[in-house]
Amino acid sequence: MLEVVHLVKDYKKFRAVDDLDLVLKPGEIVGLLGPNGAGKTTALRCMAGILRPTMGTVLINGFDILLDQAKAKAALAYVPEVPSLYELLTVEEHLQFVAMCFNELDNYKANGGLLLERYHLAEKRGDLVATLSKGMRQKLAVACAFVHRANVLLFDEPVIGIDPAGVVEMKSELMRARDAGCSILVSTHLLDTAEKFCDRVVILARGKKIAEGTVQELQTQIHMEGESLEDVFLKLTYESAEAPPILNL
Amino acid sequence: MNPLKPLLFLTFRTTINGLKRAVTSPTRVLYVLFFFGYYAFLINRTALVVGGATHVGVPSSMRGRLNFPPLEAVDALAFALFSLGWIIMLVALTANQNTMKPADVDVLFPTPISPKVVLTFRIVRDYFFTLITPLVIALLGMRASKMGWEALFRNMPHPEYSGLAIRAMSVSWILMALCFVVIIHATALYINRSDRNGDRYRAAISWFVGIFLFGFVGFLVYWFDVHPGLRSAIDLANSPILRAVFVLPTFACELTMAPFRADLRSGLLGAFGLVAVIVLGLRIAFCQISWFYDECAVKGFFVENQRTMQRAGDLAGIVAERARTGRFRIRRWRWLYNRNLSGSWALVWKELIIQPRTLLAFIVIMLVMEVGLSVLSATMSFQGRSQQGPGIMLLSLQGSMTFMISTIAGQSGFNEVLRRVDLEKALPFTSSELVWKEVMARSILGAAGCWLGVIGFLVVSPQSWQFAVAAAISTPAANLLLMSAMFLVTVLFPDMEDTTQRQFRGLVMLVAFAVTGFVPLAVFVAMMVASYPAVLCSIVAAILCLLILALVNLISGRIYAGFNASE
Fold first, then answer.
1. How far apart are CA B172 and CA B153, in angstroms?
2. Are residues B187 and B117 in the same domain?
3. Which of A245, B8, B11, B509 has the highest CB neighbour number within 10 Å of its CB?
4. Are both B366 and B396 inside the same structural domain?
5. Which residues of chain B neighbour A45 with C-beta distances below 8 Å?
C-alpha cells in the first residue's frame, strides 16, 4: 500500500509538486495523468525515494521512504520513463545485480529463467546492455521491477518505446500484478490506455492535484457524462490553467 | 546480505566486461596496453631494484655527494607542499557537483541499499584508482627508497629508517587525498541541495574560502616584505600558529617526517589526525545523507549530458541543456530580429542568432584580439619599410586569425548542421544552396572581425591603406574557402561519437586547408613578391578562393544530399 501525505517538492524557487495527497490500495491500478511539466515524474521519484521531498511523507506499507528506507524500498519497484541502465553489465548480470540489491538472489536463481523468457530476454541474456535496442532496454527495466516481490509498483510511461505486442504483454503483466494484490501507480500520457486500464486516475497540473476518481466520477463531477477521458482531461487541465479547481472525489 | 556485495559485484562485472570490450577496437587495445604496461613497468622496476640493484638511478657523479639538508628545512618544505595541496583543494571546494551515473539513479537508488553505503563505497572505489600509484610505491618501494636515500646523501639522519621515508610520504599522500575527497563530498552535500539553502551554503563557503585565501596571501606578502630570506620562510613554516591553522598539512607533514626524525609518536599522531579528519568528514557527510540521492538525481543527468555533448563537440546542445535547467539567460538581438531575410537567407539569420548564444565568449575574445593586434601591428616600426612592414604584418595577422576562427567556429557549427540534417534537408532549398548558406553564415564572424581590425589599423596607420583594403578583400574570401573545406571534411567524416574518426577528421582538415588554400596563397605571395599592388593581389587571390570554394561547395552539396544521419 502506498500513502502520500501533503507531498511538496521544490527545486530552488520552483514548486514542482504542491501538496499532493494520494492513497493506493492493494490490488488497484491508478493512473497519474497531467500535461508536460505537471510534476508527474518528480512525484514518482519522490515516492521511489530518489528525490527528497521538501515537505510531506511517503509511506510504503507503512514505512516512511526517508526514515525507514530499507524496509520501504524492499516493497517497491520503480520503472523510469527512459531507464538508464548499466551499459557494461549483461542482461543476466543486470537482473542478478538488482536481485542482490533486494536480497532476492536465491529467488532469482530459481525463477530468473522464467523472467527472461517472459520478457523475451532469454536470447539476449549474455549481451551487454549497451548493445540492446530501446525497446529491449525498456523490457529489461520492467523485468528488473519484477525481480523481487514488490507490492508497490511505480511506472513512469511504461509503454513508451515498446512495440504493440510488448504493450499488450505489459498491460497483462500489470493486470497480473494487480490481481496478486499489488498497488500500481502508472504515469502516462496515453489517455485511452489509462481509461481502459486504470481503476482510478489522478490528474496533476502545475504540481497540484486537480482531480481524482474513477473516469465515471470525473465525468459526473464536471457534467460530461459519456465523454471520453481525453475530453474530461482537456477540460480539467484547461480550467486549471485559469483557476485550479480541487476535486477530491 | 552484506550490502557491499551487490556494489562489489557491479564494480567487478563492469570492469571485466569493460576489459573484454576493450579488445574490440585498436584504439582501446592500445589504451589498455599502455595502462597495464605502465604498472608492469612500475612494479617490475621496483622489484628489480629491491632484488639487487644498488644505486637507484642516481648518477655516479652525484652518489654520496650531497649533504642531507637540515631537518627543519625538509620539514618546512614538506609542510609547504602539503599546504599547497590543501589550498588547491580549498579553491576546488565548491566545484564538486556530487553526481553519480544516471544508471545509479534509476537502478541503484530505488533499492534498499543504504545511501551511506553507496556514498562510502563510491569514495573508496573512485579514489582507489586515483591513489593506486602511491599505493604501489608504498607497498613495494621500501628497500628501493632506502638505497636511494643512502646513495644520494652521505649523512642521512637515522639511516636505519630511511626505507620507511617513501612509504610514510605515500601513506601521507593517500590519507591526505582521502581527506580532501571526504571533505569535498561532505561540502558538496550541503552546497548542491536542490532547496534554497543550497545556494546559501554555497555562497557562505565561497566567501569564507575567498576571505581566508585572500587574507593568507596578504599575510605572506607582508611577512616576506618585513622578513625577507629563506631563514624567515623556514621560521614561518615551523610557526605553531600556522601549523594550527593548516592542521591537515601539519598531520601529513608529521607522518612524512617521522622516519627522518625516528619519532614513531609524531608519525602515529599524524596518521591518527588524518584518519580522524576522514572519519569526521564522513560523519558530516552522513548528516546530510538524505540529500545525496536527491542531488545526484537532479544534477546527475545534467552533468552526464554535458560530458557527452562536450565529447561530441555539441556546443549548441550544451547551451540548450543549460537553458533547460535555468542556467542560461537568452538574449534577444532586436536589430537582428527585425531583419526581413527570406528563403535560404533564413539559414544565415538563424546562425547569426545561434552563434552569439554558443560562442559569445569566443566571439568577444576574437574581436578584441583582432582589433587589438591590428592596431598593434600598425604601431610597429619596421626599419626602412614604414608602409610595407605594418601592412604585411596586418595581412599575416588576418590570415592566422582567419585560420583560428574558422577551425573553432566551423568545427562546432558544422557538427550542428549534420545533427539537424533531417530538419534542414526538408527545407525547400537545393543541397548546394544549403551548404553555401551554412558556410557563409559561419564566415560572417571572421569577416566582421577582419573588417573591425582593418578599421582599427586604418585609424592608426592610414598611409598603409592599400594593405588594409587588401586584407579587407582577401581575408573574408579566405575565410569562406577554409569554412567550405571544413564542411567538406565534416560531411566526409561525420561520426562525432567515434573518437578515432574525430581525431582523424582534425588531421584531414589541416590537409584540406593546405590543398584548397595553396593556389590562392601561392599566387598572392608571388604577385606581392613581383611588386604588384596589394589590392590587385588580394582581388586575384579572392577570385581564386571563390572559384575553388564553388567547386568545394558543389562536392559538399552532392555528399550532403546523400548523407543519412542514421548510418
1. 23
2. yes
3. B509
4. yes
5. 297
The verdict on B167 and B36 lying in the same domain is no
pLDDT of residue A245: 46
- Considering the domain A2-75+151-248 in this protein, what is its CATH number? 3.40.50.300
Three-state DSSP class for A48? coil
Q: Which domain holds residue B14?
A: 8-49
Section B477-492 average pLDDT: 90
Considering only residues 43 to 82 of chain A, which have any Cβ-Cβ distance to chain B shorter than 8 Å? 45, 48-52, 54, 66, 69-71, 73-74, 76-78, 80
CB pair distance less than 8 Å for B113 and A96: no
| Contact by Cβ (8 Å): A35, A126 | no
- ipTM for the complex shown: 0.89
Interface of B with A (CB under 8 A): 1, 5-6, 9-10, 13-14, 17-18, 21, 101-103, 105-115, 194-196, 198-199, 290-291, 293-294, 297-298, 301
> How many CB atoms neighbour CB A167 within 10 A?
15
B17 chain-A contacts, CB cut-off 8 A: 88-90, 93, 128
One domain, residues B346 and B273: no
* Nearest CA-CA distance, residue A89 and chain B, Å: 6
Whole-model pTM: value is 0.72
A100 touches chain B (CB under 8 A): yes
- Which residue would you say has higher pLDDT here, B326 or B461? B461
The CA distance from B8 to B4, in Å, is 6
pLDDT at B233: 87
| Cβ pair B196:A13 closer than 8 A | yes
Q: How many CB pairs under 8 A join A and B?
A: 109
B370 and B286 belong to one structural domain: no
Q: How many domains does chain B have?
A: 3
**Alpha carbon A73 to chain centroid distance?**
14
Distance separating alpha carbons of residues B279 and B13, to the nearest angstrom: 29
What pLDDT is stored for residue B56 in this prediction?
47
Among chain A residues, the shortest Cα distance to B15 is held by A88
Residue B491 covered by a domain: yes
Amino acid at B364: V
Among B208-217, B221-230, B412-421, top mean pLDDT goes to B208-217
| Facing B103 at nearest CB: one of A51, A70, A85 | A85
Cell of A108: 532469482
Q: Which residue in B16, B106, B113 has the most chain A C-beta atoms within 10 A of its own C-beta, making it the best mutation to test that interface?
A: B106
**Residues B258 and B391 grouped into a single domain:** no
Q: Please give the mean pLDDT across all residues of chain B.
A: 81
Interchain proximity A50–B10, CB inside 8 Å? no
pLDDT value at residue B562: 84
| Residue B42, Cβ density class (10 Å: 0-12 exposed, 13-18 middle, ≥19 buried) | middle
Grid cell in block for residue B31: 589504451
The arithmetic mean of pLDDT across residues B211-215, rounded, is 92
Q: Where in chain A are the domains?
A: 2-75+151-248, 84-149
Q: Do B195 and A101 touch (CB under 8 A)?
A: no
Taking the C-alpha atoms of residue B96 and residue B29, their distance in angstroms, rounded to an integer, is 31
Evaluate if residue B50 carries a pLDDT over 50. no
Q: What is the pLDDT of residues B495-537, one digit of tens each?
A: 766 666 666 777 888 889 889 999 999 999 999 889 889 899 9
Q: Looking at the structure, do residues B127 and B256 belong to the same domain, yes or no?
A: yes
Cell 544530399 appears where?
A: B561
Compute the distance between CA of residue A239 and CA of residue A37 in angstroms, rounded to an integer. Answer: 16
Dihedral sign of CA atoms A88, A93, A96, A100 in order: negative
Domain end (from B253, B276, B291): B291
The pLDDT tens digits of the residues spanning A95-151 come to 999 999 999 888 888 888 888 998 888 999 999 998 888 888 988 999 999 998 899
From the list B553, B330, B361, the residue with the least C-alpha distance to B445 is B361
Mutate to test the interface with B, among A94, A100, A146 (most CBs of B within 10 A): A100
Residues A194-216 have a mean pLDDT of 88
Per-residue pLDDT tens over the stretch A33-82: 988 888 999 999 999 999 999 999 999 999 999 889 889 999 999 999 88
Does B92 map to a domain?
A: yes
**Nearest-CA residue of chain B relative to A106?**
B1
Whether residue B376 sits in one domain with residue B348: yes
Is B508 part of a structural domain of the chain? yes
- Report if residue B461 sits inside a domain: yes
